[in-house]
Amino acid sequence: MTIYLLxxxxxxxxxxxxxxxxxxxxxDSRFKxxxxxxxxxxxxxxxxxxxxxxxxxxxxxFVLVTGAGVDIALNEKAKRxxxxxxxxxxxxxxxxxxxxxxxSWYLLNIIHRVDNAxxxxxxxxxxxxxxxxxxxxxxxxxxxxxxxxxxxxxxxYIEPMVKGExxxxxxxxHNLRGLNxxxxxSVENNLLPKSAAG
Length: 198
Hints:
By secondary structure, the chain is an alpha+beta fold. It has three helices and 14 strands. The strands form four sheets. The chain has a six-stranded mixed barrel. The longest helix has 11 residues, at 76-86.
C-alpha cells in the first residue's frame, strides 16, 4: 500500500493560508501527536500579500497553517466528512479566524502515533554544521503501519501521514479542495517521492 504525506501547501498566492495572530499561541501549539483535551481556541488571520484583499482569496476546504505544530486547518464541511473516516485517530481543534466568525475552522491534530514507522538507517538526513543530523526524508516500514489509517511518527509527530487510498478517495468523492497527497518512500517499495532530490 502507498504511504502519503498530507499537506495543504499551495504555491498560488490567490489561495488563502492562515497565520497566528499572536506569536505566543504559535509557541504553545506543538501537539506532538498528543490529544489536546484542554484546548482553548486560538485566533488566526489570513496571510495577505501587500495590497491583497481577503475577498480576492480562494479559500479551500483544507488550508495551510504557517508557524504551527500542526500545519492543516479545515472547514466545517471537511470536518464532517473526515470525522467518520478517521475516527479516534484525529482531533479537530476549533480555532477563530478573524473576519470569518460565521464559519467554523479547525486544526487537524492526528493523535494516532506509530513509533516504529520509520527505518532510521535507510532514511535520508541533512547534516548541520554542528554535526547534528536532521531527518529530511523518512523511509517508512509498511508492515509496521496499519492499513487505511492516518498517523504521525517519531522525529516530527506533526506531519500527518496516511497508508492506503481510502482518504484520497474520500476527498475526491466529496470534491474537497486543498489536501495534497505526496507519495513517500518505504522499505518495501523503494518508491521515491517525485519531489525528492539527493
